[in-house]
Design a protein that fits this description.
The protein is mainly α and about 120 residues long. Helix content is about 55%, strand content about 0%.
Length: about 120
């Protein structure tokens, strides 16, 4: 019964190998630990969506909502969005992080009168 539960959530298209006689033949000799790993790897989209919603609820910014909307829109592509979509989303998120780091760094003046930020006074 436990084995059937894990086999139900596994996406066979992710683990099919060349020369397999059937779509589910990659599971024939797998034990329960390997089935758990394959089930977790097959369901990462749900984890990604939960993380994006959590990020949006914590930050409440337009930048975070773009990520959530892009993930929701990716559900319309069958069976999976192209690799370039995920790379573009990664680049977008890295750019947002870089811009936020630049604009949210504290600009505390240094002790002297030159008005330098602390890392410039070293």
């Amino acid at each position: 019964p436990i084995r059937r539960g894990y086999e139900f959530v596994i996406n066979d298209f992710l683990f099919v190998r060349e020369g397999d006689s059937a779509l589910d033949s990659h599971r024939q000799h797998d034990g329960v630990p390997m089935l758990i790993v394959k089930a977790l790897l097959s369901q990462t989209f749900l984890l990604l969506f939960c993380a994006a919603v959590l990020q949006f609820s914590a930050n409440m910014s337009i930048f975070s909502s773009v990520t959530v909307c892009a993930i929701l829109l990716s559900l319309m592509v069958f069976p999976h969005p192209p690799h370039a979509f995920w790379k573009g989303l990664q680049i977008y998120n890295l750019a947002v992080i870089a811009v936020k780091m630049v604009y949210q760094l504290p600009t505390i003046p240094a002790p002297d009168t030159t008005m330098l930020v602390p890392w410039e006074s070293v």
